[in-house]
Automatic annotation (TrEMBL):
Source organism, top-level taxon: Eukaryota
Pfam family, one: Trypsin_2
Gene3D superfamilies xrefs: Trypsin-like serine proteases
PANTHER family named in the record: PDZ DOMAIN-CONTAINING PROTEIN C1685.05, PRO-APOPTOTIC SERINE PROTEASE NMA111
Name of the protein in its database record: Protease Do-like 7
């Protein structure tokens, strides 16, 4: 262990000394710009307002695919996605939902409006993919897009996951 700590440079001196004498008080880390977690706890009303805004943009995706490759099975499945670009009709979901081969898919919005979706991208490395739909096909639901903000993500951030249970309905799960 000493060899790997030596490679860290001068920052490792305090850690190495603390490990040798058994004290753990010197093993504090400070994250630049981080505020204490307790200050950022959302109230139930905050979550309710946020969920009322985002749930209309969450869709249930129903896909049917043939066996495209030896590693992929044919079948039908349900998944969750959400609208990230309302004007262009783009839905973000997981890579395996978009499928590597031919797929027939529909998106069902919270008011039960259904629209066909077509795969436009499946990332080869990361677990995301995009479907496109005709935004004019949604006639009755008032919804907004959920903008992507990767710079806002951080370790320890409290989140809620909105999804579906086997295609039945969108629901919320605390995490």
């Amino acid at each position: 262990m000493g060899d790997s700590l030596e490679r860290l440079g001068s920052e490792a001196v305090g850690i190495d000394a603390a490990m040798k004498d058994g004290s753990s008080s010197d093993l504090c880390m400070e994250i630049d710009g981080a505020t204490p977690f307790r200050e950022n706890v959302a109230t139930a009303e905050d979550w309710r307002k946020a969920l009322n805004q985002v749930v209309p943009a969450v869709v249930v995706l129903r896909t049917t695919a043939c066996r495209a490759f030896d590693t992929e099975a044919a079948g039908a499945s349900y998944a969750t996605g959400f609208v990230v670009d309302k004007c262009r009709g783009i839905i973000l979901t997981n890579r395996h939902v978009v499928k590597p081969g031919p797929v027939v898919a529909e998106a069902m919005f919270v008011n039960r409006e259904e629209v066909p979706v077509h795969p436009i991208y499946r990332d080869p490395i990361h677990d995301f993919g995009f479907f496109r739909y005709d935004p004019d096909a949604i006639q009755f639901l008032k919804y907004e897009e959920i903008p992507l903000a990767p710079e806002a993500a951080s370790v320890g951030l409290e989140i809620r996951v909105v999804g579906n249970d086997s295609g039945e309905k969108p629901e919320c799960k605390a995490s």
